[in-house]
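Hypothesis: this fold can be encoded by more than one sequence.
Test: take the structure tokens below, design a sequence, compare later.
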């Protein structure tokens, strides 16, 4: 019951503060259209900068990537830069973007379902890695190598990073500690 409740809490994380930050992000995207352009910039340039700053605010302050990105694409299509179908075609027409979009959804689903926690517990419970953090790190790097061979480095990174985060949570390792930082950077280098 608690695992199901925990998965539901991960899927529905819209708090009132997050909604307020997303609305501020939308306001930045809309209001920059009415800001007068400085000399080297055109009104279209100021509008596109406003859309980007609104998305950046949503990504960093609201700590959400989905809604600011969708609204950014929508407002970019509603601007005089392009049309909504053209922006969506250009944004989602590339195969790499589609692959990354699929893996974002995939990693969110496996994290919400508790599969990442199960895999992390399985890796941590192996007798060969108990008391040997260098072997745990080696297993993570080997998993990264195997995933890079099967898919791409970006997709493998999106699968391995939540796994490292879960292992850190299981061992009580704080974010930003030496082992966590070295392992995160090492997985990218290994990939």
């Amino acid at each position: 019951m608690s695992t199901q409740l925990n998965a539901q809490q991960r899927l529905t994380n819209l708090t009132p503060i997050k909604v307020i930050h997303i609305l501020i992000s939308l306001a930045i995207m809309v209001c920059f259209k009415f800001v007068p352009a400085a000399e080297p910039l055109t009104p279209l340039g100021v509008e596109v900068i406003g859309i980007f700053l609104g998305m950046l605010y949503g990504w960093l302050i609201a700590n959400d990537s989905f809604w600011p990105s969708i609204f950014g694409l929508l407002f970019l299509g509603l601007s005089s830069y392009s049309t909504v179908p053209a922006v969506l075609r250009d944004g989602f027409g590339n195969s790499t973007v589609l692959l990354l979009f699929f893996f974002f959804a995939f990693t969110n689903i496996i994290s919400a379902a508790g599969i990442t926690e199960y895999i992390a517990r399985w890796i941590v419970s192996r007798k060969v890695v108990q008391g040997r953090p260098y072997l745990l790190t080696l297993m993570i790097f080997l998993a990264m190598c195997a995933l890079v061979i099967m898919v791409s480095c970006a997709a493998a990174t999106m699968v391995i990073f939540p796994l490292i985060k879960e292992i850190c949570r299981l061992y009580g390792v704080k974010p930003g500690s030496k082992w966590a930082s070295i392992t995160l950077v090492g997985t990218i280098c290994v990939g």
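The mean pLDDT is 82. The two ends are 37 Å apart (CA to CA).
Hypothesis status: open.
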